[in-house]
Write a structure and sequence with these properties.
Layout lengths: L1 H28 L6 H35 L9 H24 L1 H7 L30 H4 L4 H17 L10 H6 L3 H7 L17 H6 L26 H14 L5 H9 L13 H8 L1
Helix pairs in contact: 1-6, 3-4, 3-6, 4-10
Length: 291
C-alpha cells in the first residue's frame, strides 16, 4: 500500500498541472473544452468510485486474488521480465474487462457513466464507472494463478490507470506513427468516446492499442468525421442520481415488459441496443445499416 501512496503523491500534482494547462489552453484558444457543471459531475463520480474501489481492493485482495495466489502454478522472481509480463498481463485482461463492459448490457449499465459526458477533456478520465470495482479485479484472477503477487497486480493496475486518464484530451492530436501503432493515444481514445456509429465500441485498450488491432476492435480517427462525444441517446436528466442509475432504470423498464424469460435475459446480457422487436439496434447492427 505504501507504493500506491507514492503513486498518488506522484500523480496528483501531475494531474493538477496538465489539467490546469489544458484549461488555460482551452480558454486561450476559445475551444470550450470544459464546463463547470460537467467537471463537477466528473469529480462527483470519481469520489463515489474511490470509496468503493478502496473497499473492494481490500475485500478482493484479501479473498479471491490471495486465495488464487496461494494455489499459484509457478514461483516467479521479481525482475524486469516479471514487471514487464505483469504490465502486459494487466493491460491484456483489462482489455477484456473493458470489452465486456461494452458488449453486455448488464455491465454497460455500470460503465455508461464514463461515456455520458458530451465533453472530452482530462477530467473525463475521472468520470468513473462507479460500481465497476465490485467485479473489476475478478478479471485479473489468472495473474495470481501464474505467480504474480496480489499487491503487485493492484499497483500495476493503478500505474496503468494514470496513463489511461492522460489520454482523455483533445489538446494532443497525434503521436509519432510507431507509438500510435503500439500504444493507446489521445486520438485512439477520442474515437472510443465517440457516439458516431463508425466509432461505437472501438479502441478498448487502456495502454496498448495492439489488442484492438489483433482482436478487430480498432478504428482510426477519421479527419473527415469529427468525434461526437456522449451517448447515442443522452439522458435528459443529468442529476447526481440519474447520471449513475439511468441505464439501470431502462433495464428495469424492459424487464417489466411481457416478453418471456428468454428475451428478458437477453435484455440483461446481450449488447446494449439489442431488442427483441428491432426497435433499437446494437452497434454492430447499426454499422451494417450504414453499408
Amino acid at each position: 500500500m505504501e507504493r500506491e501512496q507514492l503513486l498518488v503523491l506522484f500523480s496528483t500534482p501531475l494531474y493538477a498541472l496538465v489539467i490546469g494547462m489544458e484549461i488555460l489552453f482551452s480558454n486561450w484558444s476559445h475551444l470550450g473544452l470544459y464546463s463547470l457543471k460537467d467537471t463537477i459531475t466528473n469529480i462527483y463520480l470519481m469520489l463515489l468510485n474511490v470509496g468503493l474501489d478502496v473497499l473492494m481492493r481490500v475485500v478482493i485482495a484479501a479473498t479471491a486474488l490471495q486465495f488464487v495466489f496461494e494455489h499459484r502454478l509457478i514461483e516467479l522472481q521479481h525482475n524486469c521480465l516479471y514487471w514487464l509480463g505483469l504490465g502486459v498481463g494487466v493491460d491484456f485482461l483489462y482489455y477484456w474487462l473493458h470489452k465486456t463492459d461494452h458488449y453486455s448490457r448488464l455491465f454497460w449499465a455500470v460503465h455508461v457513466t464514463h461515456h455520458s459526458s458530451r465533453h472530452f477533456n482530462l477530467t473525463t478520465g475521472f468520470r468513473s464507472s462507479v460500481f465497476e470495482p465490485v467485479y473489476r479485479f475478478l478479471f485479473y484472477l489468472p495473474l495470481p494463478f501464474l505467480g504474480f503477487h496480489v499487491l503487485d497486480i493492484l499497483l500495476t493496475h493503478s500505474a496503468l490507470q494514470i496513463y489511461g486518464i492522460l489520454v482523455h484530451t483533445q489538446s494532443v492530436k497525434k503521436f509519432p506513427a510507431l507509438i500510435e501503432y503500439v500504444f493507446v493515444s489521445p486520438s485512439h481514445h477520442r474515437v472510443h468516446h465517440g457516439s458516431n456509429i463508425k466509432y461505437l465500441d472501438k479502441n478498448m485498450g487502456m495502454t496498448l492499442i495492439i489488442w484492438d488491432r489483433i482482436f478487430g476492435s480498432f478504428q482510426e480517427e477519421d479527419p473527415n468525421e469529427p468525434v461526437s462525444y456522449g451517448l447515442t441517446k443522452n439522458p435528459e436528466d443529468l442529476g447526481p442520481v440519474n447520471i449513475v442509475m439511468h441505464e439501470w432504470k431502462n433495464i428495469i423498464s424492459d424487464l417489466k415488459r411481457p416478453i418471456g424469460w428468454t428475451n428478458k435475459l437477453k435484455y440483461l446480457f446481450m449488447p446494449p441496443g439489442w431488442s427483441h422487436d428491432g426497435q433499437s439496434q446494437t452497434s454492430s447492427q447499426l454499422r451494417k445499416l450504414l453499408k
